[in-house]
Amino acid sequence: MTQHSATVAPEVKAAPETVTAAFEDFMQAFEAFKEVNDRRLDEIEQKMTGDVVTREKLDRINKAMDEQKQQMDQLQLKKLRPPLGKSGGDCTPQAAEHKAAFETYIRRGDETALRELEAKAFSSGTGADGGYLVPAETDSEIGRRLSAVSPIRSLATVRQVSGTVLRKPFALSGLASGWVAETAARPQTASAELAELSFPTMELYAMPAATQALLDDAAVDIEAWISSEVDMAFAEQEGTAFVSGNGVNKPKGFLDYAAVADSAWTWGSLGYRATGAAGAFAASGPSDVLIDTVYALKAGHRQNGQFVMNRKTQASIRKFKDADGNYLWAPPSGPGQKATLIGFPVTEAEDMPDIAASSLSIAFGDFAAGYLVVDRTGVRVLRDPYSAKPYVLFYTTKRVGGGVQNFEAIKLVKFAVN
Fold first, then answer.
1. Which residue, 371, 418, 374, is CA-closest to 256?
2. CB–CB of 363/308 below 8 Å?
3. Global confidence as pTM
4. What is the C-alpha separation between 132 and 111, in angstroms, rounded?
């Protein structure tokens, strides 16, 4: 019977109160993970198979690490949340007046003060346009929290627009040049080839409900409540759309573009490297495809490259070692930092597909250069006290678009033979 050491799989304890405490728990779990995985590899080498107890313990540790990483991310998110009260944000008289008018509208449905402000400013965000613009501090609060919980948004370039569509010219090739003798004729060179990319913004909405008792409670920060209700709903929808959205009434995700073998790559598609096995990494040299994918990017993009995958894929990759026995996956170097794979940061995006036959479960690239998120200025709120009595509905809308802007900057890993 196989004898096991006293290593015990770490359990997720009561939620730690600080990011530092969560990071220490995570690092303890990683040390236990390495010990148990090393034992599993020794068993495979000696017996050609791993012990069932060892495999189960490794799976428990993997799960515990994922849960501890989630706790750490949540604590980090709390640190990023600025105060929404009257002491924070823009303290100008105009901002304070707008905030007070907006709160009156939210609590009692009284539009008088907002209409007066809009008449002064010749604002286009009127009730006839479908709602009133929320105060600046609330709008920016939603944006910051989305950046923290929507991973692709935090990696991509974000542009603010005032219209419905952003058109972006892109040079497919630079100016032509050539060498000539000192007295030779200078023939005209070819001009740069330009393409125009279009990024329409689509309407993203949420409709939280409140009782009149909640609105009458002066102790409740109504703006903070709207932000907390809306931001997570928006982030979940955005995160999915930026990865796999089909571009119909939503942004176009990078996985919805045509994917071709990197050797046959052309502009307008994303290149991929195949693992060599259907629905799995190759049995021999499984990590080779990761290195090939990294070096499929040009050097200018590679230096800003990041891996994007979900937690299940990351759990599989944690077990990989190089020829010297070093783990390719490394834990974060400190609280608030990212784990790394082959020296490049890893971003965990749950909207990435699980490993399956022909799945594109891993992306690597310079997402700031490769993917563009377009935000139309302003979040709008329409108060509706009639449709769901006795509740008051707050129809909150934001216009968002997105798509690939540089097809050279992102590469994919396909779990297929070729």
1. 371
2. yes
3. 0.75
4. 9
**Residue ranges covered by each domain of the chain:** 19-80, 133-172+191-310+349-418
Query: CB 186: neighbour CB atoms within 10 A?
Result: 7
Q: Quote the CA–CA distance of 33 and 309 in Å, as a whole number.
A: 20
Identify the three-state secondary structure at position 198.
strand
The alpha carbon dihedral of 405, 411, 416, 418 has a sign of positive
The amino acid that residue 26 corresponds to is F
Say how far residue 225 (Cα) sits from the centre of its chain. 23
Query: For tokens 């490394």, what's the residue?
Result: 330
Structure tokens at 387: 């449709």
Give the start-end residues of each E strand in 100-192.
132-133, 157-161, 165-173
Q: Is a pLDDT exceeding 80 seen at residue 294?
A: yes
Average pLDDT rounded to a whole number, residues 389-408: 93
* Angle 28-33-34 from CA coordinates, rounded to 5°: 100
Q: How many C-beta atoms lie closer than 10 Å to residue 258's C-beta?
A: 9
Q: Which amino acid is at 51?
A: D
What's the rounded Cα separation, in Å, for the pair 226 and 38?
A: 49
pLDDT in tens, 364-375: 999 999 999 999
C-beta separation of 318 from 327 below 8 A: yes
Q: Residue 32: is its pLDDT beyond 90?
A: no
Query: Which distant-in-sequence residues (6+ apart) come within 8 Å of 296 by Cβ?
Result: 262, 271, 273, 411
User: According to the model, what pLDDT value does residue 116 have?
Assistant: 74
DSSP 410: E
β pairing state of 306-309 and 344-348: parallel
Buried b (16+ CB within 10 A) or exposed e, 115-129: bebbeeeebebeeee
Q: Which fold has domain 133-172+191-310+349-418?
A: Major capsid protein gp5 fold (3.30.2400)
Tokens 């009156």 found at: 104
Running DSSP on this structure, what letter comes out for residue 39?
Answer: H
Q: In 158-181, which positions are buried (b, 16+ CB within 10 angstroms) versus exposed (e)?
A: beebeeeebeeeeeeeeeeeeeee
> 63, 414, 389: which is closest to 211 by C-alpha?
389
Query: Using only C-alpha atoms, what is the Rg of the chain?
Result: 26
Where does 196-287 have alpha helices with state H?
212-216, 222-244
pLDDT digits (tens, 9 = 90+) for 165-185: 999 987 777 667 888 898 898
Cα separation, 304 vs 366, whole angstroms: 5
172: helix, strand or coil: strand
